[in-house]
UniProtKB/TrEMBL annotation:
<dbReference type="InterPro" id="IPR040079">
    <property type="entry name" value="Glutathione_S-Trfase"/>
</dbReference>
<dbReference type="GO" id="GO:0004364">
    <property type="term" value="F:glutathione transferase activity"/>
</dbReference>
<dbReference type="Pfam" id="PF02798">
    <property type="entry name" value="GST_N"/>
</dbReference>
<dbReference type="InterPro" id="IPR050213">
    <property type="entry name" value="GST_superfamily"/>
</dbReference>
<feature type="domain" description="GST C-terminal">
    <location>
        <begin position="83"/>
        <end position="198"/>
    </location>
</feature>
<dbReference type="InterPro" id="IPR004046">
    <property type="entry name" value="GST_C"/>
</dbReference>
<dbReference type="InterPro" id="IPR004045">
    <property type="entry name" value="Glutathione_S-Trfase_N"/>
</dbReference>
<feature type="domain" description="GST N-terminal">
    <location>
        <begin position="2"/>
        <end position="81"/>
    </location>
</feature>
<dbReference type="GO" id="GO:0006749">
    <property type="term" value="P:glutathione metabolic process"/>
</dbReference>
<dbReference type="InterPro" id="IPR036282">
    <property type="entry name" value="Glutathione-S-Trfase_C_sf"/>
</dbReference>
<dbReference type="InterPro" id="IPR036249">
    <property type="entry name" value="Thioredoxin-like_sf"/>
</dbReference>
<protein>
    <submittedName>
        <fullName>Glutathione S-transferase</fullName>
    </submittedName>
</protein>
<dbReference type="Pfam" id="PF14497">
    <property type="entry name" value="GST_C_3"/>
</dbReference>
<dbReference type="InterPro" id="IPR010987">
    <property type="entry name" value="Glutathione-S-Trfase_C-like"/>
</dbReference>
Length: 198
């Protein structure tokens, strides 16, 4: 049986939330990873928009944009809240976290680093504040509706930044984001995924 292929670099980045969603949902997919060298030599030309990730579906068509791919994976995995408010709360968390990508990228690219650090701190503080308003006290997930793709989105952003730019964010300054991170990390299917990759 043909299965979808997720194409991305061999790092978490913008594909990790989808990888985890597929894994959590027990949805089969091919996790095709490449190095930066392979990207330049071969895959950039193959990528539909010249950017990664992209997902090739069983019928040969594709989906680009990491968030759209995550929507596909999350739908397949049953990780999209059904209630309208819960669904909006999940999207709210993703959007507010997405706003942190710009300054993070500038820090990574060594572009106006001090300015980017200030901007990142401001955006993380907003994300922490907004997530606090709906976060489940008992589970630590973004909403009382339970584990969703938004938890994976926030988790993988934090995983990326703490892994690649450990000095850019002091996690203890953002207790609600930290709580999401720890809750997702401890989620059995997620813990199992990282154990299997060791
Ligand atoms: N909005 C796109 C951004 C994709 C993107 O910027 N991908 C980067 C890696 S995270 C990339 O392909 N960089 C290689 C290049 O620009 O050649 C998404 O979310 O999928």
């Amino acid at each position: 049986m043909a299965i979808p292929t997720l194409n991305y670099f061999d790092r978490p980045g913008r594909a990790e939330a989808s990888r985890l969603a597929f894994h959590v949902g027990g949805v089969e997919f091919k996790d095709h990873r490449f190095t930066a060298e392979e990207w330049g030599a071969e895959y950039k030309a193959k990528a539909p928009t010249g950017l990664a990730p992209w997902l090739e579906l069983e019928d040969g068509s594709y989906i680009v944009e990491s968030k759209a791919i995550l929507m596909y994976a999350a739908n397949k995995a049953g990780l999209i809240p059904k209630d309208p408010v819960d669904a909006a709360v999940a999207e709210q968390a993703c959007s507010i976290m997405e706003a942190c990508f710009g300054p993070t990228r500038n820090i990574y690219m060594n572009k106006e680093v001090e300015k980017a650090k200030v901007e990142l701190a401001e955006k993380l503080a907003v994300a922490d504040k907004v997530i606090a308003t709906r976060q489940s006290e008992s589970t630590g997930f973004i909403s009382n509706a339970g584990f969703s793709y938004a938890d994976l989105f926030v988790f993988t952003f934090l995983l990326g930044i703490t892994g690649r730019l450990p000095d850019a964010m002091k996690t203890e300054e953002y207790p609600h984001l930290k709580k999401v991170y720890e809750a997702v990390k401890a989620y059995p299917k997620v813990a199992e995924y990282y154990k299997s990759r060791q």
